[in-house]
Request: fold
Amino acid sequence: MKKLLTLVFAVALAFSLSSVSFAQDAPAMDKDKKEMKKDEKAEKKAHKKKMKKEKKEEMKKDEMKKDDQPK
Reply:
C-alpha cells in the first residue's frame, strides 16, 4: 500500500511540474500575436499614408492642368 501511495504521489508531482513548464510557453505565443498585430497595424498605417500622399499629388496635378487650360 505504501508503494502505491508513493507512486501516486510521484505521478501527481510529475504532472503538476510538467503542466507548469508547459504553461510558461503560452505567454510567449501571446507576445508573438501582439507583435503580429502591431506589424499589421503599422503596414496599414503606412499604406494609408502612402495613399493620402498619392491623392494629394494627384490633386496638385489636376490643379496644374486646370491652370494651364485657356479660359
Summary: The chain is about 95% helix and 0% strand. The first helix runs from residue 2 to 23. The radius of gyration is 31 Å. The helical segments are 2-23, 25-68.
